[in-house]
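HUMAN: Would you supply a protein with fold tokens?

ASSISTANT:
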Amino acid sequence: MGGRARDRARDRPPRTRPETFMNGRGRHPIAMAEPILKWAGGKRQLLDELYARFPADFGRYHEPFVGGGAVFFDLEPPRATVNDANPRLVNFYEQVRDRPDELIARLASFDDPEGDPDPDLPYAEETARGREVDAYYYQQRARFNRRPYEGEFDPLEEAALLCYLNRTCYNGLYRENADGGFNVPIGRYADPDWVQRDRIRRASDLLDDTEVRRGDFAYVLDAAEAGDLVYFDPPYEPMSATANFNEYSASGFDREDQRRLLDVAGELDDAGVWVVLSNSGVMYDAYADAGFRVDREGATRAINSDADGRDAVDEIVATNVPPGERREADQRELTRY
């Protein structure tokens, strides 16, 4: 693996990011983009391990399971596609890209999550299913959950509600029930920042040059070309029967999806595309048998529905990039914030 022609990517000079910008008041450091949302399975702790397996240079960057975007926002690729199966998440990124100031203003209009429900908004007393609403947070959660049950919705309002709930819910967890309803209870924070003003503006600038997609991960078979890089970070195959946390969306991600993902990765490799994958340790043999170079890494889950379960877990990183064509340490340092 990894020995096929990727001439277009190799012929380009190495890419770097400017660290400062100049305006009328002098030169200033550039603030890098950061994830806006907390998201289960985020890769901020594994960035160095991932980048050590990325190619030294590549064409376009593709991330079919973008989630919270920890890698995408840290890498800041100049040409990219990002995708997710969660329609609410994709809508959020579209609103960040296209209407950042309106989104910030809408977020700033929201109240303290533990405050009283707003009598001028729907669900001030009970949810659509007749459950009592006793806090502003639960009123907004009920409004957010109108989408599975009603045909019309305001995309800007839904994006703002997603950010608000994500930043004020228990442990920043995103979880849907079988009907597609967000069902995470309120969190307890001294001073939660749900507006995320600076992060939204920086993310908007990056997303402005990015194709945002919603759908199946297999789109990369048509979108990726030889010399491009595809990073797959799917919902992990559970380490045990009790370790499963695939409830990012009601549709889930099962073992057949894992097998299909491995087939797609193999087709991309055959087409000369650089491929990097991360998953739980139970997928080690499957990735190794498919010809990928696989390494084990340890990471602490930043988001776990059980506070006592945030221990180091066995994760793997697989790649078709030969060691001699990977990024050097000094290049990785350019991507840190």
Observations:
- The mean pLDDT is 84.
- The first helix runs from residue 7 to 11.
